[in-house]
């Protein structure tokens, strides 16, 4: 079955370390997105990519980086510059220029200690 | 600026009561999409409905119904005869072409249905 895989489900890192969150999709979607969720804040857009080798900053891109070398993969790196990285991270994908078929992964809960 | 406002942070009802979750949005686009998602404690987002800006027909799906009114920029969600399994956080979201159709979420409404 097609879908989005985010791994791992739980991730722990020490403060000051960079960490990369994985997002893989087999839906043949062109567009991919990363969201961050904090309690009471809803989901906020970090980065999005509409085609391979291209991506745009969302509302809260500072302290994060992404790459889009393959259509099916959109990894998110949380750098040491991100002041408060502990959060729930959700990846999503959709056909380019469309909202039909918008699909979310199951999320990664990152805890930085 | 917040494009999607869900003014109700938390709502608590007793089972079998009807409950309406409010959503007000802001956009300059003529073509846009509105969504509702449910997030149970497990964390995954469950898609409930998608509406485009040209379709103002209200929709009913079982105990769920949605009232889309462009005149007031609102897209409210009503659960009839609520059940304990409806307890979750509900998000309203807006999608616009000028942001690559990324979803702009409200802060969510936490619904607690007690027996």
Describe this entry's structure for a reader.
The complex is a heterodimer of chains A (113) and B (115). Chain A is 0% helix and 51% strand. Chain A is an all-beta fold and 113 residues long. In chain A, a hairpin with a 3-residue loop joins strand 4 and strand 5. The radius of gyration of chain A is 13 Å and the shape is globular. In chain A, 37% of the residues are buried. The mean pLDDT of chain A is 92. Chain B has strands at 4-5, 10-14, 19-21, 24-25, 32-39, 46-52, 59-61, 64-69, 74-79, 88-96, 103-105, 109-114. In chain B, strands 2, 5, 6, 10, 11 and 12 form a six-stranded mixed beta sheet that branches. Chain B has a four-stranded antiparallel beta sheet with strand order 3-9-8-7, with no helix packed on it. Chain B has a two-stranded antiparallel sheet with strand order 1-4. Chain B is an all-beta fold. The mean pLDDT of chain B is 93. In chain B, strand 10 and strand 11 (103-105) form a beta hairpin. Chain B has no helices and twelve strands. Chain B starts with a strand and ends with a strand.
Tag the structure with descriptive keywords:
heterodimer, A: 113 residues, mainly beta, 4-stranded antiparallel β-sheet, 51% strand, B: 115 residues, 6-stranded mixed β-sheet, 12 strands, globular
């Amino acid at each position: 079955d097609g879908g989005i895989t985010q791994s791992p489900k739980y991730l722990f890192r020490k403060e000051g370390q960079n960490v990369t969150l994985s997002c893989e999709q087999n839906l043949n979607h062109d567009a991919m997105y990363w969201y961050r969720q904090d309690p009471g804040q809803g989901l906020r857009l970090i980065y999005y990519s509409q085609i391979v080798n291209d991506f745009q900053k969302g509302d809260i891109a500072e302290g994060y980086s992404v790459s889009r070398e393959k259509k099916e993969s959109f990894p998110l790196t949380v750098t040491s510059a991100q002041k408060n990285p502990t959060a729930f991270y959700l990846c999503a994908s959709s056909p380019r220029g469309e909202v039909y078929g918008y699909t979310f992964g199951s999320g990664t809960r990152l805890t930085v200690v | 600026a917040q494009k999607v406002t869900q003014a109700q942070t938390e709502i608590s009802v007793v089972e079998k009561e009807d409950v309406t979750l409010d959503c007000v949005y802001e956009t300059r686009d003529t073509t846009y999409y509105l969504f509702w998602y449910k997030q149970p404690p497990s964390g995954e987002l469950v898609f409930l409905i998608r509406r485009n800006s040209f379709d103002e027909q209200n929709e009913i799906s079982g105990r769920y119904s949605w009232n889309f009114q462009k005149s007031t920029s609102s897209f409210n969600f009503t659960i009839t005869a609520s059940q304990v399994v409806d307890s979750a956080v509900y998000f309203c979201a807006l999608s616009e072409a000028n942001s690559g159709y990324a979803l702009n979420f409200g802060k969510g409404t936490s619904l607690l249905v007690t027996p």
